[in-house]
Amino acid sequence: MRFERVAIVGVGLIGGSFALALKAAGVCAHVVGVGRGAANLESARRLGVIDSIATDPAQAAGCDLVMVATPVAQFERVLSALAPGLRAGSLVTDGGSTKRDVVAAARKALGDKVAQFVPGHPIAGAEKSGAAAAKADLFRDRRVILTPLAENAPADVARIEAAWQACGARVFRMDPETHDEVLAAVSHLPHLLAYALVKEFADRGNAAQLFGNSAGGLRDFTRLASSHPEMWRDICVANRDKLAAELGAFEDRLRAIRPLLEAGDGAALEKLFADARGVREKWLQGGFE
Description:
The chain is an alpha/beta fold. It is 50% helix and 13% strand. It contains 11 helices and 9 strands. The protein has helices at residues 13-25, 38-46, 75-82, 100-110, 154-166, 176-202, 207-212, 216-221, 229-238, 240-262, 266-284, and strands at 3-9, 28-34, 52-54, 65-68, 91-94, 117-118, 120-122, 143-146, 170-173. Helix 4 links the parallel strand 5 and strand 6 (117-118).
């Protein structure tokens, strides 16, 4: 399994790491980087993430494989630019954190070429962004979820799966609806909470005192608030129904905890904390694989 020319549209953490991983595995010969920021693309070329630069997604259409790794709100524009020149046999995949909107954008933009688009999502994000954050081993032993379309040929899905496996990833399949529901809980909600807590403290009159006296706890909890704002704006808007439902469930949990705190019910609080710690330790030890 080899791709002679791979295009990365959006050479950031995910797209750049995909390029580096494919290169390290020896399964691609040349990587074209496509993006809006000239400085980022020059940095990517200097670092060996990409081999050449293109400024228009249409220039990626002739490649064997195209990875779209832009914020999800840009997908329809990118795929519309790709569509006219996308040749038979070429495949397109993505790294978007939402899938229902991505699939809808692909159907609208690609038309009868949508069979060449195999949606995917690597569960391997970080708060850093840009080509300089890319790492060849980012996907090693990490999950990648594919949400294949009914139109996809099994052989094409297998090629995308093999590409991710060459990057060291473990590949799973899921339908777009389930994907967006699960990720709203385990990814989108934690990011929203991190942003909200930082903003809450920043807007208080004693913000300097609060941040000045914080340590590892606040830093660890709010690490996600260093993530790319444009990307997370698009994710939250695209998955707003599932995310709102998860936010409501979390609000219910907090409302249930508040009476325990107000009553000074130490036994109930300790049990809640112990139960949560036990679940987290089981999770970290691979108990939910």
